[in-house]
């Protein structure tokens, strides 16, 4: 299962970019959860998650973003979600995520938002 | 030990006495004594005929006794194992010298006491001499028993032939002997020929004695000692018994001329058999240790195989292999420790001749621990004295080890334990030991693997059972019967992906007493989802009666659950109130899949706003939640589902989506009932997914608004359907 999922990390200044690829389900969600956990532990709370290569997200996969959001926002940061495929966006949208998260078109937009806030 | 031998001997005698022929023999013996006594009391009455009768009775006693001995030998052949028979033979061999010597000494003593008295025997003399005679008969029986048993422990093609020839020889000899004692006409040389022939016959023909190989070295040595003593006694005896009568006018041959010669013959036969055995044992002794070891190896491997098939406890397996290894390699001490890859600590599973302190000494030197105690393969340190660093092990208050053999034990590819054998002498282990230990390693691996599999399958079985219980409990949490809601025809299909799942549906009455359908889905699946589902059921049950509307209801549920679940868990839920008074459906959606509504020809996808339950606090949740009021008409259809329907996947991972269901709804005829519709949707779904495994729970709800006519029909058809 987990071979269908990949995470690439990069950072620009104090902003971290996580690029996820493949299938995000109950199994692979744990990998992503650990990645975000590591960042939060290091006090890196400005996170942009790029969904460009994500094919599928399950309900358990969605839950990962809920785990740290409170802690991150209390620390003055945020998780911004960018480049969601329409199918993936529908899943987020049905659940009402656009009301909870910043869902944007491009990484630059997210970068800009972080820098201006 | 001697006492046990005598016990065994008397047991054999007892067994012989139990035979009918032995009892007859005893009767003949008694009659002989009586005849002899008559001869003493009335010496002149019957003349020589009494002597004749006495001799015949003696012959009868002897032959019946020997017959019983052979019968008993035959009996033990059929109901004792070879090992038991060898043991019995060994014991009889051990007893024979004492019995025969005892007889001879007693007889000689009697002769000495009676010596010089007149030639005519008195009453006491007659009785004593008859007792001596009985003793000799028993001795002859003993000898015959030994000869017979050593010939028949393992029968071969030639056994019966040898026995027959011997039997004929024995009868010829005995008849000649007794004829001689009566007529004195047989030449000594004739006896010599028969005796020598029989001796050589037995000695040469007793070839098939492979059963000796099954004895351990110590068993062979024990037989060898006893047989040696026996041969010695046999030689002396046959000498004494066949001593020349002409030369000395006393001695046993003179007193019991017939019996003595018979004894001489039988002693020489027994001596021949035992000599042959002894020589074979002597030749096999150098290889005995080797054979012992092979036997032990085979036995150990059989034992390990048995364990591999039946034992689930790793400790028992480890202990058995350790004791077996110690025994086979003659190690002085050994221990077995469990390995934990995550921890430097070791756990001693079993040990022989070593306590924890000793074992700690072995662990003291970290290089030794690294190299030997954590070795990935067999390792042999033949001489610790050579190694300065390890020499301390040879010194310790008492020497712990001078040579060490360590072997890892595997389960699958995982090293789970180490077996360490030590000897207090240099170069204590040989290549043979290494080979044996690797055989053990293979067997232990099989035993471990089997134990693991057995444990796993038992565990799986248990989990399966518990899951099936959980599954039936969860089925009971769902409504057992869809309530009759006036003007609606409702059908629900719920197919969990596993035994238990996170899908939930229910019918509750709100505060205004109106029915409300709830369809929900806990994020994730399996057991965690099922737990939350049960939790949600409780909350729904409690809060429904207090809620004014679906909107109010979902807000209350969210308030109750928010912050009380794991952070990554949430629940999506749709609630639909059937407002039959105003002919409208009131629908609210908390992050759940949309509701499809078919009105006349058109099908709408209703997606009122709403966050999933548990994602946000009260204020945000209430702010985001929307409620829809949809007036309904006869024939309208509302379709509720969980993502198990829309996200069902086929073999190439395509999703089912909304379209197929929307198509079904669009193309419906008015007459289709809710169960027909649901059936069609499920068929489409199955057709789509084919053989792909179901990933998520599926809940599919069809609500059909009935026309008055339908309602009427329903009412009429209901009792008919009941029949």
Describe the structure.
The complex is a heterodimer of chains A (117) and B (723). Chain A has 117 residues and is α/β, with parallel strands linked by helices. Chain A has a single domain (2-111), classed as STAS domain (Transcription Regulator spoIIAA). Chain A is 48% helix and 32% strand. Chain A has a five-stranded mixed sheet, with helices on both faces. Chain A is globular and about 30 Å long. The model of chain A has no long low-confidence stretch (mean pLDDT 88). Chain B is α+β, with helices and mostly antiparallel strands and 723 residues long. Chain B has three domains: 2-295; 311-456, Beta-Lactamase; 482-722, PPM-type phosphatase domain (Phosphatase 2c, domain 1), CATH 3.60.40. Chain B contains 22 helices and 15 strands. Chain B has helices at 2-17, 20-41, 49-79, 82-114, 123-152, 159-183, 188-205, 217-241, 252-255, 257-310, 314-329, 356-364, 366-373, 392-395, 431-477, 526-544, 550-561, 618-624, 643-646, 659-666, 674-689, 708-722; strands spanning 333-338, 347-352, 379-381, 403-411, 414-423, 488-495, 503-509, 515-522, 571-579, 584-590, 595-599, 602-606, 627-631, 637-641, 698-705. In chain B, the strands form three sheets. A five-stranded antiparallel sheet of chain B has the order 2-1-5-4-3. A five-stranded antiparallel sheet of chain B has the order 6-15-14-11-12. In chain B, α11 runs antiparallel to α15. The interface between A and B is medium-sized, with 18 and 26 residues.
């Amino acid at each position: 299962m987990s071979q269908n999922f990949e995470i690439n990390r990069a950072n620009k200044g104090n902003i971290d970019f996580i690029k996820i690829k493949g299938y995000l389900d109950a199994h692979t969600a744990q990998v992503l959860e650990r990645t975000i956990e590591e960042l939060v532990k290091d006090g890196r709370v400005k996170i942009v998650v790029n969904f460009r290569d994500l094919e599928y997200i399950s309900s358990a996969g969605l839950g990962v973003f809920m785990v740290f959001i409170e802690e991150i926002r209390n620390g003055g940061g945020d998780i911004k979600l960018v480049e969601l495929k329409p199918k993936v966006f529908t899943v987020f949208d049905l659940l009402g995520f656009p009301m909870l998260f910043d869902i944007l078109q491009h990484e630059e937009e997210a970068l800009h938002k972080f820098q201006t806030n | 030990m001697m006492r046990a031998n005598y016990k065994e001997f008397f047991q054999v005698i007892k067994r012989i006495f139990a035979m009918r022929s032995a009892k007859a023999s005893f009767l003949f013996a008694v009659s002989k004594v009586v005849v002899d006594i008559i001869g003493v009391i009335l010496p002149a009455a019957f003349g020589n005929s009494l002597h004749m009768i006495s001799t015949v009775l003696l012959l009868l006693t002897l032959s019946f006794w020997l017959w019983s001995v052979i019968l008993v030998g035959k009996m033990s052949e059929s109901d004792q194992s070879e090992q038991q028979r060898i043991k019995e033979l060994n014991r009889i061999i051990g007893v024979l010298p004492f019995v025969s010597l005892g007889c001879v000494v007693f007889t000689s003593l009697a002769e000495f006491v009676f010596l010089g008295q007149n030639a005519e025997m008195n009453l006491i003399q007659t009785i004593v001499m008859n007792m001596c005679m009985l003793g000799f008969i028993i001795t002859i029986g003993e000898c015959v028993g030994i000869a017979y048993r050593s010939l028949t422990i393992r029968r071969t093609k030639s056994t019966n032939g040898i026995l027959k020839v011997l039997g004929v020889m024995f009868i010829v000899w005995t008849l000649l002997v007794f004829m001689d004692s009566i007529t004195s006409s047989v030449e000594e040389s004739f006896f010599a020929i028969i005796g020598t022939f029989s001796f050589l016959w037995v000695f040469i023909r007793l070839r098939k004695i492979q059963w000796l190989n099954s004895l351990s070295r110590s068993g062979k040595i024990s037989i060898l000692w006893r047989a040696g003593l026996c041969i010695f006694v046999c030689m002396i005896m046959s000498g004494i018994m066949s001593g020349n009568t002409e030369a000395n006018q006393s001695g046993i041959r003179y007193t019991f001329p017939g019996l003595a010669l018979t004894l001489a013959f039988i002693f020489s036969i027994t001596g021949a058999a035992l000599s042959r055995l002894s020589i074979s044992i002597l030749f096999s002794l150098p290889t005995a240790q080797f054979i012992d070891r092979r036997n032990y190896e085979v036995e150990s491997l059989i034992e390990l195989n048995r364990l591999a098939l039946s034992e689930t406890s790793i400790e028992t397996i480890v202990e058995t292999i350790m004791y077996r290894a110690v025994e086979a390699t003659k190690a002085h001490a050994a221990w077995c420790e469990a390995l934990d890859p995550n921890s430097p600590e070791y756990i001693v599973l079993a040990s022989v001749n070593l306590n924890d302190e000793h074992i700690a000494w072995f662990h003291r030197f970290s290089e030794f621990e690294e190299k030997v105690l954590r070795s990935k393969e067999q390792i042999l340190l033949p001489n610790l004295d050579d190694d300065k660093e390890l020499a301390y092990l040879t010194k310790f208050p008492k020497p712990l080890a001078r040579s060490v053999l360590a072997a890892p034990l595997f389960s699958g590819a995982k090293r789970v334990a180490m077996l360490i054998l030590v000897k207090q002498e240099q170069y204590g282990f040989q290549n043979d030991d290494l080979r044996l230990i690797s055989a053990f390693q293979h067997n232990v691996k099989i035993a471990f693997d089997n134990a693991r599999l057995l444990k796993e399958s038992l565990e799986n079985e248990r989990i399966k059972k518990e899951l099936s219980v959980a599954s039936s409990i969860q089925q009971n949490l769902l409504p057992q019967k869809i309530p009759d809601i006036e003007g609606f025809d409702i059908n629900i299909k719920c197919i969990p992906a596993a035994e238990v799942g996170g899908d939930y549906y229910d019918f509750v009455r709100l505060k205004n007493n109106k029915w409300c359908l709830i369809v929900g889905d806990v994020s994730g699946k399996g057991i965690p989802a099922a737990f939350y589902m049960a939790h949600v059921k409780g909350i729904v049950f409690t809060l429904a009666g207090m809620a004014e509307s679906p909107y109010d209801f979902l807000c209350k549920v969210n308030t109750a659950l928010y912050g009380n679940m794991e952070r990554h868990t949430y629940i999506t839920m749709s609630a639909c109130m059937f407002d039959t008074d105003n002919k409208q459906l009131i629908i609210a959606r908390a992050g759940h899949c949309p509701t499809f509504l078919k009105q006349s020809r058109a099908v709408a996808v209703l997606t009122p706003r709403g966050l999933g339950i548990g994602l946000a606090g009260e204020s945000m949740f209430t702010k985001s939640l929307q409620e829809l009021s949809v007036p309904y008409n006869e024939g309208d259809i509302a379709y509720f589902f969980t993502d198990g329907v829309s996200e069902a996947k086929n073999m190439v991972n395509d999703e089912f989506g909304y379209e197929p269901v929307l198509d079904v709804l669009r193309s419906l005829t008015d007459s289709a009932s809710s169960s027909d519709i649901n059936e069609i949707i499920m068929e489409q779904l199955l057709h789509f997914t084919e053989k792909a495994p179901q990933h998520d729970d599926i809940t599919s709800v069809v609500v059909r608004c009935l026309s008055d006519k339908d309602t009427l029909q329903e009412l009429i058809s209901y009792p008919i359907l009941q029949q």
